[in-house]
Amino acid sequence: SAVISQKPSRDICQRGTSLTIQCQVDSQVTMMFWYRQQPGQSLTLIATANQGSEATYESGFVIDKFPISRPNLTFSTLTVSNMSPEDSSIYLCSFQGQGPTDTQYFGPGTRLTVL
Amino acid sequence: AQSVAQPEDQVNVAEGNPLTVKCTYSVSGNPYLFWYVQYPNRGLQFLLKYITGDNLVKGSYGFEAEFNKSQTSFHLKKPSALVSDSALYFCAVIWGTGGFKTIFGAGTRLFVKA
User: In a mutagenesis test of the B interface, which of A3, A42, A94 is the best target, namely the one with the most B β-carbons within 10 Å?
Assistant: First the structure.
């Protein structure tokens, strides 16, 4: 199966700053997803990122706060902008195969703490 | 509203005993059902899925799950639990026509005692 990696694995940031999280897949994938997960809790989908088009954001998430890039079929970034302590969470990238019946594969996550 | 429920925050079992982690759903149309497991400090890993066909599906690490359409359930089971099965388990449902949506359950933490 494909390997998916994220950088950084964790970071501690100051309020008001921004952090860009990178997600790399070792094969070309069409759909990539960004999730937020409070430790030990469920996943909340932030947005879906398809190569060559604008990301689609879920209710409660906006592009100004979470800009996403998807420059090619193996890479995506999520930026958490103007951070506040409420943004402290685990951020996961994910991809799915060709369609809804395919398995989703998840990166190891980026643990963000905002002071 | 579409929803997925994992009614138990935590399940405790003794090693060697059977385990069940429950999942029920409420979505329109025919869903695709998945189970994922998350070990500490790691990303989610796929366990098994139901798409169509036989209601009993078998997956990784000896896990299986049974799709019950009338009860709208997809409970995860294993005949004999291992301490190493201790982890956080998520049920996920995909549904829709044309545009598909995914919902994850709240997660159930499984503790297996030696």
Answer: A42
Question: CB contact, 8 Å: A101 with chain B?
Answer: yes
Query: Do the Cβ atoms of A54 and A67 come closer than 8 Å?
Result: no
Residues 3-32 of A with CB under 8 A from B: 4
B49–A41: do the CB atoms touch at under 8 Å?
A: no
Residues of A in contact with B96 (CB under 8 A): 100
User: How many beta carbons lie within 10 A of that of residue B54, not counting itself?
Assistant: 9
Query: Do residues A105 and A29 make contact, with C-beta atoms less than 8 angstroms apart?
Result: no
Q: pLDDT tens-digit profile of A58-104?
A: 999 999 999 999 999 999 999 999 999 999 999 999 998 777 788 88
Encode pLDDT of B41-91 as tens digits: 778 899 999 999 999 999 999 999 999 999 999 999 999 999 999 999 999
Instruction: Say which residues have a Cβ less than 8 Å from residue B10's Cβ, sequence separation at least 6.
Output: B108, B109, B110, B111
- Partnered with residue B37 across adjacent β-strands are B45, B89
